[in-house]
Description:
Layout: H1 6-9, E1 11-14, H2 18-37, E2 44-52, H3 53-57, H4 59-62, H5 64-72, H6 82-95, E3 97-99, E4 105-107, E5 113-116, E6 126-134, E7 139-148, E8 151-154, H7 159-162, H8 175-185, H9 189-197, H10 203-226, H11 241-249, H12 253-256, H13 260-269, H14 274-293, E9 297-300, H15 309-320, H16 328-345, H17 350-353, H18 359-373, H19 378-390, H20 408-428, H21 438-451, H22 464-467
Parallel strand pairs: 2-5
Antiparallel strand pairs: 1-9, 2-6, 3-4, 6-7, 7-8
Helix pairs in contact: 2-5, 9-16, 10-14, 11-14, 14-15, 14-20, 15-18, 15-20, 16-18, 18-19, 18-20, 19-20, 19-21
Bound molecules: iron/sulfur cluster (SF4).
Amino acid sequence: MDFISTFDMFKVGLGPSSSHTMGPWAAARRFLEVLRSEGALDRVARARVDLFGSLAKTGKGHGTDLAVILGLCDWDPTTCDPAAVHPAVAKVRAEKLLPLAGGRAIPFEKGDVAFHLHESLPFHPNALAFTATLDDGATRAETYYSVGGGFVVQEGEDAAAKGAGPDVPFPIESAADLLAACRKSGLTIPEVVLRNERAARDEAAIRDGLARIWDVMRGSAFRGAYAEGILPGGLGVVRRAPKLNRSLLGDRAEAASRNVDAWVAAMRAGGGEFHAALKWLACFALAVNEENAAFGRVVTAPTNGAAGVIPAVLLHRVAFHEGGDEAVAPFLLTAGVVGALFKKRATISAAMGGCQAEIGVSSAMAAAGLAQTLGGTAAQALMAAEIAMEHHLGLTCDPVGGLVQVPCIERNTMGAVKAVTAAQLALEGDPERAKVSLDAVIRSMWETALDMNSKYKETSEGGLAVQIPVNVVEC
Length: 475
Ligand code: SF4
């Protein structure tokens, strides 16, 4: 199969959803590319977007309509100002004009983004189709699938051929391959992954890319820790991270609000005794996912709904263990390759596998990163990932109101706690005596995904979602 880079598993973007916001956004920009390459972009008179399956059922709460509008405007989610997102969409809606690819304005009515609540396409539950009507009445259409984690596949595209990527020194298709590569080469997991990454980009690009990921991760936690208020969407969810942050920092909270370095220094000065460290872990995870729910800038890791787990565990590692920021690169490289194994051999899409594919995978990734950077062997790091996933098997996805808030935000705290516990168990454990391998738990997760009732796969038709009716406010 293809090489999946650390930078595929960690992507800078905007909340609240990788599959329902980032993927559709990317699909819209890919459709613009098609039109551009065919010389049709300047002849588009109207554009229409049809959303199917899970994208239709939870798209309103997940901001899918907003994402496709901004995608068609050719906004870049990695660099745009998050505060400008809602005003820009409101302007398109009020004026009924959409600046296609940032240029010529075309008429755009509310019904031009259509939610087909009772229709799904066979390839994947997250499907969307774009149709452009040209000046002469001809149409050009493409269908895309948002397959989780912001990855997008175009109808008819050979995904394996497209992503084939560079020849890497250590082809890794399974946890067994990864362990064998480490044992044969005498390298650690992050060293093996780094050698593979070098086949795709130079050392400086890798270093800068990892630093940028970390910068956005800790920035999202910092902003979330100081952003008070109620989350958008109509559910009335109050942000909880700021209160927890204040209670942990006491009279140091204001000075720590200066910047992210001052914040980390203040929490470190307070010490990491058990209860405080546990509360900080929750604070980090809440903060990131409250930012995510508020359409803030986060790192997809490996999805947006689960974007808080890895930053929480890594911040915890940096703030309360020896080595500080030295742990960041090996942590991310280890977590990334574990996430890639799940993507290759199972799924990271909640619409395919429920929440085990989001929170479960992020917890497994974080557990491996933590075990690795606390001195574990490759086998212990993979054992940590296995333990973390083992205790997320079967976890369903049933977001209330289709919003990435309840149970999603709290669920990140649970994923982070399980990751830390899994790493601790693995560091004290003997992988040779483990009964379950990481490859076995990945297989089990995939089989569970296939058997899971579709109402628990990001449709808001089961579980908690049907217990608490809510009117979703249009973004
Ligand atoms: S329940 Fe889990 S998988 Fe579903 S939207 Fe929330 S975080 Fe994502």
